Automatic annotation (TrEMBL):
Coiled coil: none annotated. This is PD-(D/E)XK endonuclease-like domain-containing protein. Signal peptide: none annotated. It comes from Patiriisocius marinistellae. Pfam families: PDDEXK_1 (PF12705). InterPro entries: P-loop_NTPase, PDDEXK-like_dom_sf, PDDEXK_AddAB-type, Restrct_endonuc-II-like. It comes from the Bacteria.
Length: 906
């Protein structure tokens, strides 16, 4: 296989003879290194190498300006923001930093695409003004402030860029603009120099201007890397940019668009592998590589579309892989020490004189603290046993013992009174931790973490805007996301592992690409910008369609010269990942070129399942005494249905009181969401008890949804962050559920129905006579709502999950206690029975309101004689008697000392 770099080198040597006087500009430093290696490899004698530089280095040289990092830029830009006369009320740095990165990103794009900023910002300001035209003279101070901000953008941009250029530093886009302005002068003073642009695809306007200016001189040229198959297909986005240059550049009006190869349609073996979960991908790769010879490994590259797979992949490499070159670094954010500081800063945001025990546990349970504080695990167990929910620093020091490093505990748990003290304590912690023995990777991680907090300290000393721990956390998260630990090794020998961008201009005979899933390759739509789609279109700024075309080019380029291609994708649907194969795979299947042999394999782990030994627990006198305690307090409907599902679970949870470990929730759990919605509805509706609901009153409740849901989240999801990510989505879901429910009731009332709340979250308890047992039996629980609906009493249970009408209907009464799928019907009947003990019921309905199936309305319990037969949905005394018979039978079975708890095979 002849690579693009080898083709280009051969061409340049044939054209120029000696290439030592060339300046070769490439997309990245990495690709330049590979070219240099090819020069060494193909040179029969000692030669002087040409000057090989990345486009970014060349741009900095042209402009005479250094590119500033994004964190420093944010601080400098806030300094400028404070000087703007057009913005009267300045926001705090905390608030500013939430939106400024997006704005600075837009400034960057405007400069990269050489847009004249003043008319552009005027246009953008006018759009915002038009969006609020309907307010006319009634604009609130907030709207006025908002519009004033948009009208100040030109002033902000001008002052910021002036200040940066004065300091000979700038963000990337501004450096590109200045380089573009200087390129004509550079060309005139370097007429004898020979420049070659090698392997580019998507160029911004500044890059296009620079390239076109330089190639006007015949000594300079650009060498593209595309395939005739894509270039001639005007509907294919892989050559979208190159076709545009051929059409629009003056250079090509009288010159041929050359350097189009014809490799893609040649013979290729393409294996498309579907796996369950990401770990399945790396395990398959390990097995595949174990069949490769050393010579084959030298010609192989693994491209990680999802770079999170790097560490699992390294742990899966087989023994025959002796040399590996990894072009990407290990993300520090995924390493244990980085996660520890993330936890620490999160906890310190809401710091008080005492700590919530789960926060203390999350820190003390961290692996590295186990080395330093060996008594940590024992102490956390003691805290849980003592049922203490909040712990002071003194309690922690006393609990873990005097022998432990007091300075580390104080640095973690003593209050941080200032942001400088917070930074100092983090640096002190790192210095203390370094004294203990660690792996090389952990030691390097500590070095990088020290550098991060030192950088934050330097910035805070120069620009004292960090007023809160939350802001420190924000910058820590930003810096840690971009920090990696690089591997050392031979860059050009052995198996190559790299990301998609690192593969630019490189070619390999054997290509393995992971995570070829929709949303990863290509990535999904993202639009972190204040610039509207129409404005981007008008000014030629890149939209997601152009970004999609870039991914298409990268993907097809990886396949272009390869002979053996393995594409892996994850079929597992989880969270935000849909488990959908990429459209790139679909396109390969549709094209189905004659020389492409496409094979499909579904890889699943081989799992040997042994016969499970079902547990059986006899009822000892102690167990019977515990059952008597539960009976006296009252069997809850959920405990009884838990027994129906699996008696052994009832034994562990109700008899032994073994619950699931109460871990700190990183995302809101389903039961937490249910609690929040139940409690919100209780607070909102309690003032309305005893009176008829009206649509007007319910509409006023809607104004209270946001503050009440916020309050309940803070109470129930204590210490959790629900301002971003999945938790923010769940927060919005909670508000939507409550809002939809109130809208549902408004619609019901407007249809002429009368609703009156009788009880909310009422505790109920009722005695049950069990002839075979000689101790008192009760059932007890809390019913979500009792109301009157057009004179009919309704006993209602809320469910945040989806429930269908069929879930609460029965044909055979025995099914209630034999089959867990009837658990919802069992529960509503239990509430009806308990309410009947309080007040004899007539003309009553019991059922469920499902927030995920609100359109179905109130789902009533019903009995019927056959599957599609007529239903009886009225709760009568006869119905309650039939249910009580089943309940007595169930409780008799539970409390019978001769019946062991026998595990069910679920």
């Amino acid at each position: 296989m002849q690579s693009f770099l080898e083709d280009s080198l051969k061409y340049l040597q044939s054209k120029h003879g000696s290439i030592e006087n060339l300046t070769i500009i490439m997309p990245s430093k990495r690709s330049g290194g590979f070219l240099l290696n090819y020069i060494k490899k193909h040179s029969k004698k000692t030669v002087f190498a040409p000057r090989i530089i990345s486009i970014e280095t060349f741009i900095e040289y042209l402009s005479g300006i250094n590119i500033i990092d994004t964190t420093t830029l944010l601080f400098k830009s806030y300094q400028v923001y404070l000087t703007l006369d057009t913005i009267k009320e300045k926001e705090s740095f905390d608030s500013y930093s939430n939106w400024a990165s997006t704005l600075l990103g837009d400034f960057n794009e405007i400069d990269r695409y050489l847009i004249e900023q003043k008319p552009f910002f005027n246009y953008l300001s006018d759009i915002q003004d038009i969006n609020h035209w309907y307010l006319k003279e009634d604009k609130t101070p907030l709207i006025e402030k908002y519009l004033a901000f948009w009208s100040s953008l030109d002033d902000f941009y001008t002052k910021l860029t002036t200040q940066l250029l004065k300091e000979k530093t700038a963000y990337q886009g501004l450096v590109y603009r200045k380089a573009s302005e200087n390129c004509e002068e550079y060309l005139n003073t370097n007429l004898e120099k020979k420049h070659v642009f090698l392997g580019f695809n998507a160029l911004n306007s500044a890059e296009q201007n620079i390239v076109q200016t330089l190639i006007k001189n015949s000594k300079n040229e650009i060498i593209w890397d595309t395939d005739n198959y894509f270039f001639e297909d005007y509907g294919h986005s892989a050559s979208l940019f190159l076709r545009s240059y051929k059409k629009k550049w003056d250079y090509y009006q009288n010159k041929t668009f050359s350097f189009i190869n014809d490799y893609y349609t040649k013979e290729k073996k393409i294996d498309i592998i579907s796996t369950q979960k990401n770990i399945g991908q790396v395990k398959y790769i390990g097995k595949l590589l174990s069949t490769f010879s050393l010579q084959e490994l030298e010609k192989t590259a693994i491209i990680l579309a999802d770079e999170q797979l790097l560490l699992p992949l390294l742990h899966s490499l087989p023994a025959n892989v002796q040399d590996v070159n990894i072009t990407m670094g290990v993300p520090v954010k995924n390493l244990p020490f980085a996660i520890f500081f993330e936890l620490l800063l999160q906890i310190k945001i809401t710091e008080t004189s005492v700590y919530y025990y789960k926060d203390v546990a999350s820190l003390l349970n961290h692996p590295f603290l186990h080395k330093i504080i060996p008594t940590a695990t024992k102490y956390i167990s003691e805290v849980k046993m003592s049922n203490a929910t909040h712990i002071s620093v003194e309690d922690i020091l006393k609990g873990i013992g005097e022998s432990t490093s007091v300075s580390i505990v104080n640095a973690i748990f003593k209050p941080w009174k200032t942001t400088q003290e917070a930074i100092t304590n983090c640096l002190l912690l790192i210095d203390n931790i370094k004294e203990f023995k660690h792996t090389k990777l952990d030691s390097l991680a500590l070095f990088e973490l020290h550098a991060i907090f030192s950088k934050i300290e330097v910035l805070n000393n120069e620009y004292p805007y960090l007023k809160t721990i939350k802001t420190i956390q924000q910058f820590y998260n930003e810096l840690i996301t971009t920090t990696t630990i690089d591997y050392q090794g031979d860059a050009y020998n052995g198996l190559q592992i790299m990301g998609v961008l690192e593969s630019r201009v490189l070619d390999f005979e054997n290509i393995i690409i992971t995570s070829v899933n929709e949303g990863i390759l290509p990535s999904g739509k993202s639009n972190a910008s204040f610039i509207t789609y129409d404005l981007k279109s008008h000014y030629g700024l890149p939209k997601y369609t152009e970004k999609d075309a870039i991914y298409t080019y990268h993907f097809t380029h990886m396949l272009q010269r390869a002979k053996n291609i393995t594409l892996l994708y994850n079929t597992h649907s989880e969270g935000m990942n849909a488990g959908e194969k990429s459209r790139f795979i679909t396109q390969l299947e549709i094209d189905n070129l004659p020389n492409h042999t496409i094979n499909h394999y579904n890889v699943a782990p081989k799992i040997t399942i042994g016969k499970k030994q079902l547990k059986s627990v006899n009822k000892t006198p102690d167990v019977i005494n515990r059952l008597k305690e539960i009976a006296a307090k009252g069997f809850s409907p959920s405990a009884l249905t838990n027994y129906i599902r699996n008696p052994i679970d009832f034994y562990f949870q109700s008899i032994l009181k073994i619950r699931e470990i109460d871990e700190v929730e990183e995302t809101v759990a389903a039961n937490t969401l249910g609690t929040i919605i139940h409690d919100t509805l209780e607070i909102l509706y309690t003032p309305l008890k005893g009176s008829l609901l009206t649509s007007e009153i319910l509409k006023t409740l809607k104004k209270e949804i946001h503050p009440e849901v916020t309050k309940q989240f803070k109470k129930t999801f204590e210490g959790g962050d629900f301002t971003k990510g999945k938790n923010l989505l769940i927060f919005e879901v909670a508000k939507k559920y409550v809002s939809n429910f109130i809208d549902f009731e408004i619609k019901d009332i407007q249809a002429g129905n009368e609703i009156m709340i009788i009880q909310l979250e009422e505790k109920l308890k009722a005695p049950i006579i069990v002839p075979e047992l000689d101790f008192p039996i009760y059932i007890g629980g809390k019913v979500d709502r009792v109301d009157s609906y057009n004179g009919t009493l309704r006993i209602i249970d809320y469910k945040t999950g989806k429930v269908n009408q069929g879930d609460i209907e029965i044909i055979n009464w025995e099914d209630l206690t034999d089959d867990y799928s009837y658990s919802k019907a069992f529960q509503v009947l239990a509430y009806a029975l308990m309410y009947n003990h309080k007040k004899t019921i007539t003309n009553t309905e019991a059922g469920i309101i499902s927030f995920k199936n609100l359109g179905a309305g109130f789902l009533k319990f019903g009995t019927k004689e056959k599957s599609r037969g007529p239903k009886n949905q009225v709760i009568t005394q006869e119905i309650l008697t039939l249910f009580e018979e089943q309940l007595v039978s169930l409780i008799t079975e539970i409390c019978n000392p001769n019946n062991p708890f026998i595990e069910k095979e679920l």
